Give the backbone structure.
Amino acid sequence: MRFGILQFPGSCDERDAVEAAARVGDAELLWHREGNLGQVDAIIVPGGFSYGDYLRAGAIARFSPAMESVIAFANEGGPVLGICNGFQVLCEAGLLPGALLRNTSLRFRCAQVDIEVVNAETAWTSAASPGETLSIPAKHGEGRFYAPNVEELEANGQVAFRYAPRQNPNGSLNDIAGVCNERGNVVGLMPHPEHAVDALTGSTDGLKLFASAVGALAGR
Amino acid sequence: MPDPTAATPPNLVESSRAIPGVDAAVQLGLTRDEYALIVEKLGREPNEVELSVFSLLWSEHCSYKHSKKLLVTLPTEGPKVVMGPGENAGAVDVGQGLAIAFKVESHNHPSAVEPFQGAATGVGGILRDIFAIGARPIAVLDSLRFGEPTSERSRYLLDHAVQGIGHYGNSIGVPTIGGEVYFEEPYEQNCLVNAMALGMAETDRMIRSAAAGVGNVVVLFGASTGRDGIGGASVLASAEFGEDDPDKRPTVQVGDPFEESKLLECSLELLERGLLVSLQDLGAAGLTSSSAEMASKGEVGVDLDVAKVPLREPGMAPFEIMVSESQERMLCVVEPARVDEVLAVTEKWEVHGTAIGTVTDTGHLRVFVGDELVGDMPVPALVDDCPMYTLEPAKPEGGAPAIYPAPTRTPAADLKDPRDLLLALLASPNIASRRPLFEQYDCLVQSRTVRRPEQADAAVLMLPRGGAIAVSIDGTGRRVAADPYKGTMENVLECAANLACAGAQPLGLTNCLNFGNPEKPHVAWQLSESIRGLGEACVALDAPVVGGNVSLYNESATGPIYPTPVVGLVGELPDPASAGRSGFGRAGDTIAVVGPFAPFLPGSELHKLRGEPLPDGLEHVDLEGAKAAHEAIRDAVRAGAITSAHDIAEGGLLVALAEAALFGGLGASVDLPLDPFANPERLLFGESPGRGFVVSGEAPALEALRERTPVTLIGTVGGDALKVAAGITEFEVALSVLSEAHGALAPLFP
């Protein structure tokens, strides 16, 4: 199992994602100018501030050569995970529905939050149980999920994660913390599972997402 | 004085021979005597470029001309020091081939003019200092001072400075793991924004800033150079504030963390591939100070062609290019054969690498526009010949109360009941929870943060090859004002106490000395006494000073700020899994007061709430007794023998107990031994910084500490309230009520 983690100028959680993925498989960084992704089995678009979040979070990164290949990879059913800024990039690229708006507080907020696994049948959640609660940190200023067709997403099972009651840090619609595409191979979430893989730093619940991708590959 | 016209070097291009003269020099902040000295060293009067360069390098900010004679008295050597003062940052050995670089620096004056950009570029600047020595930045801490939050201006400065720090640190992917903020009236017109950064490096891969190798190429990379911040940090930081501050806004630099993120990765890749001879960041005084310092340390000359510098706007004069403080730029020295490889790396990271000069054997800094020489200065004159001043300290009659008015009485001033006083103190701006601030900072990126804010008294980061470091930053301005010597010793003790509670032993210390105008005798007294206390405390605690920064002239029309030495300590602990916690952790644990805790009310937060004047002097500071307590607690934490340890700081014993309860989410019942005739306020709310601790654990483990330091068992952990008995005083307060009081800062961040 080989994870590829995209690196844009301005990414900041890419090394954390490499280390987290390396706990369950092999992991390498993929430079954004490189169109050829090589032999990777799953792709993570990491957190950070790609291109300084200038214009709009994720709006510039989605035009990078590597993203063309990520879109093709996703369309073939390859597992793709977008974390925080990566979630924003995947929404901008049209791989995931909806958009991330500024937090209702208009402030960056960093806090450990509990999120509930709503859909445990995606490529990145299959190692969790439906309704299971994961303790994972969230840290962002633009994480308020919005989609005009949110009822449709709910009905389709495209809500992957929801903040636990009273823990929504950003004012997201329906407390949505993460969503998936219809096929379930592309998942995005605002909280950072790569920062929840070691009891010493607070939690190991995030490992479930990476383990899920390993399981999904084995099952394919 | 030699005849200046006769001494003009014939090779200086005709168009740059105009002489601005001594009045222009005075406007740039030099004295007439200093100007005469420049003429003597140069053998002629300086032209515009040369005068600009001299005025910056001879400013207080660059030359430390009023503080250097005192700073050299500080202890700077120790077995773990791998880089001491003089480099971009200091560094200590943490074993297994790794070093931790760290430094604190002020950005007070820019922040008072434009708090968001001032604070943001403060973070950007200190981060560049760290990666300029080849260390990857791993943490930021900040130390902030504002006027009382009842003032609209203070609330504005606070809110925007916090957002600026978060904006820069969060965006560049360096966690902000700790800090402190205090509110006092003397900071109303002159806020303090100090930022500290830590970096990690392979000890044998760190790089120094001295230029070397005649014929080597000087390469500038990073952002393009504009007119922003011309004379900003260096000029703003070297004079008192007047009423025309909004006019100074154009001298504040604008930060771009995305540019710095690229600059950081590019610099580290250049170093990793061994392509550089030396590296230096461009901070205050821009190209001027970076090139002059590189040349001075290498005892060489440097020729720069300012026509090659990538500019943000056309038509910039040579002197403007030399003094611009545009952010996010670095300067490096490269062997000619490696220039193409260096430029390929700068191209990869899109940071405009440009060869702009060469290292020479002339010993001069020479500035060219193409082939035309527009400035020619001996490097020693620029860097070494600035006059060093001896201060004339004098303690004013009556001490601190003669310098500072008493704090304004607060509505809590008339409270007498200890329960009411506890709640008033918990809700007071200097003690209330900092959660509304620190939640605006990413404290965990890079995946090393083992203890976040409010989990332990010091932040703890684990290291990749085992072990961990703890770090804390502390300043206690009001008590230093009361007694600059003892107050500064207490300040160091309090910071070291935080490390002890986390289980860490100090390795090294950095400091930022924020003071008023040192040319005034009472400020000179504060500065010299404070540095004396700092040095003695560092010697006692085996914590050498590895670097620091001085910020003087922090005054406004209403007088000087409280003298505010801010110290940052870095310590080591063998096992991140045994890092200490400050909150109670287990119902049934015994609680003890540990250490030579000797509380007094003068100078305390309670006296501040009541509007009591500052005392003239503080009580005796028992450095050795404090050190013994720190060592006993540190060893107990490392051995896992105790559950929690929290130092008794602002607000005294009751506040420390309430905090330990709140941080752990567990109540406590305590019975405090009190002489029935004694004033209970002194025991409950008196302060004795760095010398007392609230510790919880099993009773035998606490008793065992008694061999090394005083221990008084006072109660038990449990329940959902704090129950206190002390002599005839008895009360109970629910955790939910304590929590509500402690959350009093939230409305400052709507």
Remarks:
- Chain B has three domains: 4-61, 207-388, 400-748.
- The radius of gyration of chain B is 26 Å.
- Chain B touches chain A at residues 163, 166-167, 170-173, 256-259, 261-262, 265, 349-350, 438-450, 452, 462, 576-577, 749 (CB under 8 Å).
- The first helix of chain B runs from residue 4 to 7.
